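> Could you send the Prostacyclin synthase prediction when you get a chance?

Sure thing. Input:
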Amino acid sequence: MFWTAALLLGLIALLLVYSRRRRQRNEPPLDNGIIPWLGHALEFGKDAAKFLTRMKQKHGDIFTVCVAGKYVTVLLDSNSYETVLKDEDCLDATGYAKLLMKKIFDLHLPNHNPKSERNRAQKHFQGNGLTQLRNSMHNNLQLLLTSPEAGLNTAGWKKDGLFSFCYSLLFRAAYLTVFGEHNNAELTEIYEEFRRFDKLLPKLARGTQNKEETKVANSAQGRLWELLTPPSADRNAKDLSWLQSFIQHLQEDGMDAETQRKAMLLQLWVTQGNAGPAAFWVVGFLLTHPEALRAVREEIISVQHLAPEERDKHTPVFDSVLKETLRLTAAALITREVMQDTKISLSDGQEYRLRRGDRLCVFPFLSPQMDPQIHKQPEMFIFERFLNENSTERKDFLKDGRRVKYSIMPWGTGENKCPGRDFAISAIKEFVFTILIQFDLELCEDATMPSVDTSRYGFGMLQPRGDLEIRYRKRS
Ligand code: HEM
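Output:
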């Protein structure tokens, strides 16, 4: 009996080893990892930045790794991203987006088309739409800061974690702006359920949540589906909001009420999941770098008299601080499905073959953002990194003596750039300026910047492990 089992196990092991994929001519270097099928899944999920840095040191700017039965080619030459990702016929964004929708949001949108979603978002979050959103964001922030229920309008010092302070306030203001009116109690509940859900998002995406976590995710999701009411709209109205036009599109596609609610949660995450954490990192870096805080404060005073649209054009110091913050903390992994055997050409002229059914990822966080050839001391927060001496924007970043086209890519690249980026920038700026003008903010004794939650590499803005303790007081 023992010998039969041992023989069987031996045979399975041999089969797994011999059926392992081998590198073929002109393919990127292949790294299967030690464990058959699982490959590098555990290391990848634990800290993608560390794992991919190790692979880059071993193989260079392009390599293929086995991750839970899937072969993923990772491209880390940022000069090639734009050209390579242009081929949308061979490298498709839809399939992977649908897979994540199913795994995270239990959502099935058979006709999902990222291109038309991006166009819809562009129409509403840029140009004239942006001016309206910016005004509305300003008013909603003021409303929250003065409403007695929000509890911020009181004299005397209060303590809080900076992450929770920034995320809750920005989330609520942006929710009122994009999703419309809600009473304060509901708004607070939506925020709290969203945070419970968002904390588990990386695990849901990887399918590594345990029973207890599945329960928490289901209960948060269920409550959010109840709370997020799809907006109604007159079918013939011309000026639909972004959300109204999205829901109308789902209805025309024949999606039922349940699917519409699930899709609302997806959109809640797309529009609210990144700006709050970004605002936290900006304010956190300012509080822990007094010279940067001083420079931003001086700039705010000098532009305070201008209307927001005009003001936003004259804030080079803040703009540099924001870029530097995003360089250090924006870490989306951009993923495409390889639809057919194809060949990609990199900026150094090398060509590589990709196999149908694999995935291709680019990771702007590692390259260009943390590339030591492009950014000296890349781990450090240097607030003037994106400023010239004459206070204009610095754009001349070099690699191997040649100017790089993009020194950071927090919004993605090419056609697929985040369509909400102008709104996100203006919301973060409005938020930071408002709290620096209206509050005294201080670090609590011994408070230091928390480290990064490494499981979130790949999912947009990073989040801290723990929080940064602050005290604040509304100025009279
Ligand atoms: C700091 C804040 C934000 C960051 C760093 C960020 C970053 C990104 C990135 C990297 C992508 C993916 C590009 C790709 O897959 O190629 C994306 C997509 C997108 N973002 Fe943002 N984003 C932010 C805030 C926002 C906001 C505030 C909105 C809207 C109000 C928004 C709306 C969208 C939409 C609609 C998409 C496209 C999703 C799709 O393809 O279906 N984003 N964003």
